[in-house]
Amino acid sequence: KWGLQTKWLGQTVVFEEVVDSTQDVAHKTAQKGAEHGTIVVTDKQLKGRGRRNRIWASDHAEGLWLSMILRPELSPFEASQFTLFTAVSLVETLQKLTGLTIHIKWPNDLYIRNRKVCGILTEMQAELESVNYIIIGFGLNVNQTEDHFTDAIRERSTSLSLESNRTWDRIQLLQAILEDFETNYYKYQQEGFSYIRKKWLHYAYKLGEEVKIITPHRSFFGIIDGISADGALIVLNENGEKEVIYSAEIHW
Ligand code: BTN
């Protein structure tokens, strides 16, 4: 069944039924010298984590919990662009397969209507100017029903299944995701971030709309205007001036 049509992505798979976090397994695997494109997959995570040290609920086998080990030629500054690239690639595959309309909330959460369906976590091991390896983890809610979510989580989360009223074959999804990712990876390498940026804007959530922006320094209401050539968020602040935001949470 696993007829994966890729050259390097997912050709080595580390699968464990239960782990604390696939990110941790991936770090260990990478440090032992795992090759570019090795993936770590699990059914259940006991300590799945999200950005800003948040918990990522994944102690059930209904989602896709995965970390990819990549060894791109990249400066540490370009790593955030790489995450935006991952979001774009995921949206394209998922829209194609499910027919659902999916948007990207900056920097890289995937949303269906008003709820999050997928989160991406990028971690890297870098020395001065170069990246040794990068681990891109994503959690995709696939077959969860209402019962799998607490009320608080359900309020802001959804699954492919809840949005489409059917279940999805996780292996088939995984295969398509990996195949598209690899194809897009070549295009990204050839054409650079401008190619991703255009696509990202096409899928952007709340573009031109007012949101609350919480940066490490202040919070304010602003209008999402786009992303810069290096992947930062551009907003129009209270005074109508453009501001470039590198780190923030967006709320509405
Ligand atoms: C976020 O939305 O903050 C990112 C969530 C990332 C979750 C995935 S699930 C697979 C991998 N292992 C983890 O512990 N986290 C990521």
Strand tally, please? 12
Low-confidence stretches: none
Quaternary assembly:
single chain
Structural class category: alpha+beta
**Could you say what the CATH architecture of the largest domain is?**
2-Layer Sandwich
Strand proportion: 25-35%
Rg estimate, integer Å: 18 Å
- Report the end-to-end length measured between terminal Cα atoms: 43 Å
Helix content: 25-40%
CATH class of the largest domain: Alpha Beta
- What would you give as the CATH superfamily of the largest domain? Bira Bifunctional Protein, Domain 2
Could you say which overall geometry the principal axes of the C-alpha atoms support?
Answer: globular
Mean pLDDT: 95
Main pleated-sheet profile: 7 strands, mixed
**Tally of DSSP helical segments:** 6
CATH topology of the largest domain: the name is: BirA Bifunctional Protein, domain 2
Query: Which kinds of small molecule does this entry bind, naming each only once?
Result: biotin
Q: What strand order characterises the main sheet? A: 1-2-3-7-6-5-4
Order of helices and strands: EHEEHEEEEHHHHEEEEE
- How many domains make up the coordinates? 2
Protein name: Bifunctional ligase/repressor BirA
Function: Acts both as a biotin--[acetyl-CoA-carboxylase] ligase and a repressor.
Binding site for biotin: 45, 49-51, 116
Keywords: ATP-binding, Biotin, DNA-binding, Ligase, Nucleotide-binding, Repressor, Transcription, Transcription regulation
